[in-house]
Amino acid sequence: MFGYTTVNKPEMKFREYDLYHSYYCGLCAVLKKKYGLTGEFTLSYDGAFLCTLLCDLYDMQDEISDRKCVVHPGVKHVIRTNPATDYAADMNVLMAMFKCRDDWNDDRRLSAKMLAGILDGKTKKIRDLYGSKIKVITEAIAAIDELERKGEYDPEEMALQFGRCMAEVYAYRQDEWEKYLRPFGDHLGRAVYLMDAYEDIYRDVKKGRYNPFINIYEKSDFENTAREMITMHLQEACIAFEKMPLIENVDILRNILYSGIWIRFNIAAGKRGGALADEAGKEGENR
Q: What is the DSSP letter of 75?
């Protein structure tokens, strides 16, 4: 996944952050238990967000314990696990595998190819569990690859395909909540795809890689256009989100959706603004 669904820590209460962190650490523990150190390496904020959402929506009973970890060996952390943690771990590893394949295709990074191969081997045991999901995700990613190959530069069309992937990830079960989780995952996925493309546009242009914004990034209204597209999909995601009967973790999730998710985008926008200002200053000096 991409790591955009993170918290805005300064805006959280201590109790909320401790609760969120216990889900994050719980996911890390389950990844290591099910997939070893390689699985633990894939730990993402996206997986923690998925777990935090599902365990509240389905009112799951947490198993609470504590443990030390490699990152913080001197301190024990509270960890919370439940069936949603196992599901989030599976989805986290599956999406990490697809992301590594994409990195190999884009940059020919040997490390990405090796990690994708390792994760592919570790996920064979769960293929039967999520066969229909994997089929849809595989088809959507293949569609993205084909559109890139054909030189399709419609950001919305590309985002639509990644939205298909995330709709499958968030549709935990075929039940009464699926009607909210699917559109939520769909539009969240589209927004995240567009955010990632926005953040990477200059690196992609410099390296000659594909980016759906390549035809418009030099236009004067690019900043507003990109922000409006992302905002529209986040609004649709939030409409679906607010229909879910969330209680215990709702403030944590709102912190992420309404604030935290914008942090990396705003950092990228600030860097772009600074770069444009420097260019304008240099042009003025040369006149």
A: S
Task: Render pLDDT for 165-184 as a digit per residue (tens, 0 to 9).
Answer: 999 999 999 999 999 999 99
Tokens of 188: 């969240």
Place of tokens 């409409």: 239
Distance (Å, whole) CA 77 – CA 221: 46
Query: What is the pTM assigned to this prediction?
Result: 0.90
For the chain, give me the number of helices (H) and strands (E)? 10, 2
Residue 40 CB partners (closer than 8 Å, separation 6+): 28, 31, 32
Q: Is the pLDDT of residue 283 over 60?
A: no
**251 to 15, 143, 154, 225, 231: CA distances (angstroms):** 11, 36, 35, 29, 20
Nearest-CA neighbor of 59 among 275, 256, 257, 244? 244
